[in-house]
Amino acid sequence: MKKLLLITAIASALAPLAAQAESTFVTSAGAQSASARLDFKVVVPKVLFLQVGTGTNLANNATVNKVSFDVPAGAIGNGTAVAGTGGDLAGGGVTVRVLGNSGTVSLTNATTGQLTSGVAGDPTVPWTDIVVTPGALATTTTGYTNAAIAHPPFNNAAAGGASATATTLTASAGLVRREGSWTFAYANTATLPAGTYGDTTGNNGRVTYTATAP
């Protein structure tokens, strides 16, 4: 019991010393100088942010925009492009914003097949008929480079898939901070049966964009 009390007393006496920072004690008759050191550490986590359409900078946002093309009755298949509606920007445009802090970012997309009407035997709308024009945003977000970002080509295979070529966003000093816009139009090159093509995931109407970084 006496040994236990002695150990406890010693531990209690040493505890304040263990919690102290470095210290230096000097004594002399002349000028004196004492120094003590501290070490500092900042941990920055890896982050990767991608926004296509409506979004909240550096936060999650579950809104999925739909870009629609309404072909005029007198212009079906005449080759005159039809502007889109429904993105978060005017004329079928969407915001594109990427932030990464772990090196170069690759941007791809994936489709599940050509746009169908859901009617057996009807032709499909190939993804090559969805034309994308990259551009800059009207207003720059602080900290981002606002300029056109190349759109990765759609996979036009019957079964869809990821784009064969990625858009590479090269890091500067380890950072990617880019924003721009993609404006979509329908090329309107074919005369098609009446119907709605795409619109649902079942009719291959959804494209999934993915950003990857080291």
Structure overview:
The protein is mostly beta strands and 214 residues long. The protein has one helix at 2-19; strands at residues 48-52, 82-83, 93-100, 105-111, 130-135, 145-146, 161-162, 167-169, 176-186, 208-212. The strands form 2 sheets. Strands 1, 2, 3, 5, 6 and 9 form a 6-stranded mixed sheet that branches. Strands 4, 7, 8 and 10 form a 4-stranded antiparallel sheet that branches.
Say how many strands there are. Answer: 10
What structural category characterises the helix and strand content? Answer: mainly beta
User: With helices defined by DSSP (H or I, 4 residues minimum), what is the helix count?
Assistant: 1
Describe the global form.
Answer: elongated
Largest sheet: 6 strands, mixed
Q: Which stretches are poorly predicted, pLDDT < 50 over at least 5 residues?
A: 1-19
Strand content: 15-25%
Question: How much helix is in the residues?
Answer: under 10%
